[in-house]
Amino acid sequence: MKSCLHHKVEEYILSEIKNRHLKPGMKILSERKLAEKFNLSRMTVKYAIDKLVESRILIKVQGKGTYISNNLNYNGRIMLSKDNPISMKHENIVLGKTCTDYVQSFKLLYDRDDLNSIFKKYKDFYQLVRIRFADESTYGIEYCYFPFEIFKDAIRYDFSKISIYDYMSYKKNIPNNFVTKIEVVRDPNINAILNLDADSYTYKVRFYGINKDKNLVEYTISYMKMDKVEFKIRYDFN
């Protein structure tokens, strides 16, 4: 995968947002100036900026430059919506939190009817189960499914250290469109993992990630504490 040098630029921009030096709607330094600042190639800087654009931290305006998204949230909770970051790790950094992931399991599943009915085109899948932490406190557990056929070498990577979306981007199969379904559920087994009372409720969010070719490449079920997440919902009355 691409060198980690691009993380210098990502971390700098996220830090500037977290410290309020960069605010929603403000323009960031040009690729040339960032390359000079960090003694990096323009290509590396562009890659870093593109990653933050994919996560909807930044937006690009043709002919004008790159700006901080107007949809960032500073109220202490993760904000999920069509316009907000798909990377919960990035949003937690913006909120000033230290993020870690614990990989509970990573395995292959063969010819599962429930997954076959979702993906249609594929029969074998990876299942990646991660417990997600912010400031050493669990905020969610995530069951991520993606087709073995197009991500065969995924088993080589440590997804406690790298983003699944960085990996998918490297494989040129990153989702660029999502269908999201939200429920409120009470699941004692999930509550035990998240250190909640057995009768507590959590959000159950299902993400369907679709790539540029309109193929489903990711199906994720995420259970999240209700006091850690907000949802921004936009209604179209046309």
TrEMBL record:
UniProt cross-references to SUPFAM superfamilies, sorted A to Z: Chorismate lyase-like, Winged helix' DNA-binding domain
Keywords linked to the UniProt accession: DNA-binding, Transcription, Transcription regulation
Coiled coil: none
Superkingdom of origin: Bacteria
Alphabetized Pfam families for the sequence: GntR, UTRA
Any GO MF annotation of the entry: DNA binding
UniProt entry tagged with the keyword Coiled coil: no
PANTHER family: MANNOSYL-D-GLYCERATE TRANSPORT/METABOLISM SYSTEM REPRESSOR MNGR-RELATED, MANNOSYL-D-GLYCERATE TRANSPORT_METABOLISM SYSTEM REPRESSOR MNGR-RELATED
Name recorded for this polypeptide: HTH gntR-type domain-containing protein
Native species: Anaerococcus lactolyticus S7-1-13
